[in-house]
Amino acid sequence: MIILLETALSIKQYLRNWQKHDVDIKCPLCNKLTRRHTTYERQVISKYETHTIFILSRRCKPCNITISLLPSFLKPWQRFANHFREIAGRWHLTGRSLNRITASLSESGISRRTLQRWKQKFHKQLKEKLIQQRRNIIDDSAVADSILVHYRKNLTAGDELKGKTRGRFCCLT
Ligand SMILES: [Zn+2]
User: Fold this and answer.
1) Is residue 54 domain-shared with residue 88, that is, in the same domain?
2) 75 domain residue, yes or no
3) pLDDT in tens, 129-153
4) Relative to the CA of 92, which of 30, 40, 76, 115 has its CA 20 to 30 Å away?
5) Which residue numbers delimit the DUF6431 domain (predicted)?
6) Which residues are placed with Cβ below 5 angstroms of ligand 1, an ion?
7) 68: CA distance to ligand 1 center in Å?
């Protein structure tokens, strides 16, 4: 099981003070205090370097589970830091090609294939968010009317996903 440390930390701050997070926490399943278990090493890749960090883990004996305390700059089971993924995503949104992003981040050792996978996941999430937005605005007729105007002018959902609506739907976030 993984618990994200709520404290916002940079990698360098975490490296300096990671031991201070070794505190008593309650088990999310049974609410009893967990015990110190082990630490293990993990690699975190940022834009220019790869860091080795220590992850604290706790043990809940009654539940027979181990809990890893993951710093908030990492997603579970990912080796690239969140801000690194954010940089790649923002560059993609500004129209940079995957080849160019791969080249710009070459010091990290990221492959074009990984970036392609992130891109596909990102667009899937974007599509799901768009669908959810549509569901949320059904009850807001004023907002719905402002969107329908564009659809009456032959705009399609596919066009919208391709970014052909940029600047039109300023009311949506
Ligand atoms: Zn427990």
Assistant:
1) no
2) no
3) 888 877 877 777 777 777 777 778 8
4) 76
5) 27-118
6) 27, 29-30, 60, 63
7) 13
